[in-house]
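EI: anyone free to look at a 506-residue chain?
SC: sure, send it
EI:
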Amino acid sequence: MSISRSVPAAALALLCLGGLGLPAQAQQPAAAPDIATLTASDAVKQLCAGTITSEQLVAAYIAQAKARANLNAFIALDEAGALKQARAADALRKRGGACKPLAGLPVAIKDNIQVQGLPATAGTPALKGFVPGADAPVVARLRAAGAVVLGKTNMHELAFGVTGYNPAFQSGPEVGVRNAYDASRIAGGSSSGNGAALGARMVPAALGTDTGGSVRIPCAFNGCASLRPSMGRYPQQGIAPISHTRDTAGPMAQSMADVALLDGVIAGGAPIRPADLKRVRLGVAQAFYANLDADTRAATDAALARLRGAGVTLVDVEMPKLMELNGAIGFPLALYEAHDDMAASLAKYPPGIDIAQLAAGIASPDVKGTFDAFVIPRKLPAPAGTVDAKPVYDNAMRVARPALQKLYRDTFAKNRLDALVFPTVPRVALAAAPEASSPENFGALIQNTDPGSNAGIPGVQLPSGLGATTGLPVGLELDGPAGSDRKLLAVGLAVERVLGRLPAPK
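SC: here you go
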């Protein structure tokens, strides 16, 4: 069934039945919002203008979340709480209160980010009973700007994967978070539920986390936009960790304008205008163009041709030893830091368990294997089995990571680049099955997102099109110099004007 037909009708039915408690005069001014096409930025404008209410929006998105429960996008859908927040936002506007930047906009929060009064499971059974007493700072900033928290979204267990094939939480008949465009496919991860919810129009905006691609990969697979900010741009308190060197929260939404809106709320700054593409230089490094499937290559080639036609200067660049350097960093950082970072988090936000008890309850075979073999014993994989993690980690931090960061700095400076451009993921979404979470698939799916993560630089993801054969979304990533987040968002805004948004799934 088409979202564009089903959602407004469902929401309108709810409103007309009077189940939301709106006074009669408040039910008249606006028809049910068409959330198939509505962006967060447009929703905020309409909320401030009074042409829609926050309660109408929340009702429409809740209806859609229930209608697409088969995607397993939500761990906790806070229907009563969200409607209460929405009514409060509407009442404030009726009293003549200033329209806040998010003005009663519904948002979803990944379940490893703490929200007061809602579970913070990090997608794992051992934390099912943990309900924090305060919002994480990133959530508090969204709430202060008028956001309404719709609920907590599903994820790859403990954020240790990129498929979302998590057997621990289900709202539908099948295992794992499913793709909005084809429920037989994975949603990507680890911010899996956010990607599925955005693609399926269950929510206009969301907050996820990204360690090696976790806000970018789900948006590539589900046709949404996202930002992995420069390291340190957002506060990380109140978020279940993997690696303090690599972890960051990141906004996800229907459009780049929405992503910029959320970034402005979290990090501050004036509204961002689209860049002049005739002044934009984007680097093309062949390392990011390896192992592409046919749909991804065709969509990427077409996107680059359209950008060139819009005035963008594309520059072929060399990045020697990029993937070699990245390989010396990624696993050593994530697997070594995960032990101490998670142990410290469990001690600070006490659910009453230690890291060994957490590991014992892991439901996903891939994550369980990673914790048992590497994280808990402080080991790393090696050709002849395993090795002690500490010396390899020390080398990664002392030698390999600085070398990778220098390679990026030199590439940007030498070629006068605003950003690098490449396909976010080398292939479209895989079939949903346990084997999707194999080590081989993990390495393949993070091929292009991981280097920027290890360098600590910002990256934006936006759709480049639908695959000609599969009909599945293909993503395009722009990675910029460290600290260039606002400029990168400006480029992303301009690129999106050329490439456009994807249609809602049928």
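EI: Confidence is low (pLDDT under 50) at residues 1-29.
SC: 👍
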